[in-house]
Amino acid sequence: MSSVYQINKGINKAIEFRGLKAQYIGYLAGGLVGLLLLFAVLYICGTSVLVCLPLILGLGTLLFTTVFRLSKKYGQHGLMKLRAKRQVPVSLQFRSRRSFIQLLKQKA
């Protein structure tokens, strides 16, 4: 039996897959690929499977919970807005009045 997963996408709406919205699907996919590569590297280096498997499962659980929590908390554009907000300075400092004087001259 095959499972059928529905990807809900309406007109002008972001892709949503099992509660994940927009870019979080990509974050989860990238994280899973990273975990697969980490497992391969650890296994090739000779680390025991009894060490690799719980480590990868723990990191995978952490990845899933983090991505789903971020998706629920910030939504489609919220994480980008948060990053943009951090780049805005709290205040502007001017050492001289030259900027304001030039604005007054341009206005007049």
TrEMBL record:
Transmembrane segments: 24-42, 48-71
Record keywords: Membrane, Transmembrane, Transmembrane helix
Superkingdom of this protein's organism: Bacteria
The protein, known as: Conjugative transposon protein TraF
